[in-house]
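step=encode ok
step=design start
structure_in=
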């Protein structure tokens, strides 16, 4: 029997993309789907768009303290066996949830699963293919060889058992950029992820996204995050060197 899946979408002023996000979830036609959208009282047309889907999802519209707080609200409400979050400018590829559900049905001892994702621009055009292939290569290694070096996990393509929250709590709301990396490292302390080479989602980078406009600050918080999990000076030094190299690459490809 396929497990139930809860998808959480934190939403705030992404009216240009939110319809594609919601449609990508609902069009999965997954038989045991719970979809929760947590909007922080958007001031654009996001809420008007979301209102047209109210019979097909649970909409929470209230002030929050940021993206991580919104995700946690949804995770605390979720009832699915498997949970994930999908940001309001990203989207699922066709058949993604079926592949996820079948993995957990066939591997009942698996705690979490991570797959591949396309990187796209605001028009949905594929970009940064070398970055995608590099992280794809890292995920073929054991996490011990890359987890302290960089966040090679595709956030929108990662799913875990809701029961993990009973042991680990929820996302760290003090983190603005790397709440996902911190969460992967906490999950990793329990079990390495199952890794799928399947393309499950599209991760969008655009002018107003954090990944597109604030990558320098993101790397600063990234280093602070890895330092909490890896006190080793050697690991921290490698991580810092890697971040510096990646920043230079990002500056060249932007």
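sequence_out=
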């Amino acid at each position: 029997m396929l497990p139930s899946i809860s998808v959480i979408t934190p939403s705030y002023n992404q009216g240009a993309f939110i319809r594609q996000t919601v449609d990508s979830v609902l069009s999965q036609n997954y038989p045991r789907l719970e979809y929760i959208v947590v909007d922080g009282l958007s001031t654009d047309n996001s809420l008007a768009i979301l209102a047209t889907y109210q019979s097909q999802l649970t909409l929470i519209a209230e002030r929050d303290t940021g993206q991580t707080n919104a995700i946690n609200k949804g995770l605390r409400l979720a009832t699915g066996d498997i949970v994930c979050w999908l940001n309001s400018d990203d989207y699922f590829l066709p058949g993604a949830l079926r592949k996820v559900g079948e993995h957990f049905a066939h591997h009942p001892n698996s705690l979490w699963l991570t797959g591949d994702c396309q990187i796209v621009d605001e028009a949905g055009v594929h970009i940064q293919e070398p970055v995608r292939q590099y992280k794809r290569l890292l995920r073929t290694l054991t996490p011990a060889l890359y987890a302290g070096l960089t966040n090679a996990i595709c956030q929108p393509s990662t799913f875990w058992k809701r029961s993990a929250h009973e042991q680990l709590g929820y996302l760290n709301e003090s983190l603005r950029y790397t709440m996902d990396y911190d969460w992967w490292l906490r999950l990793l302390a329990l079990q390495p992820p199952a890794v799928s080479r399947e393309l499950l989602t599209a991760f969008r980078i655009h002018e107003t996204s954090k990944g597109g406009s604030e990558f320098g600050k993101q790397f600063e918080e990234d280093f602070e995050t890895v330092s909490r999990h890896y006190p080793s000076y050697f690991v921290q030094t490698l991580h810092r060197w890697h971040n510096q190299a990646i920043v230079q690459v990002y500056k060249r490809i932007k």
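step=design ok
step=annotate ok -> The chain has a mean pLDDT of 94.
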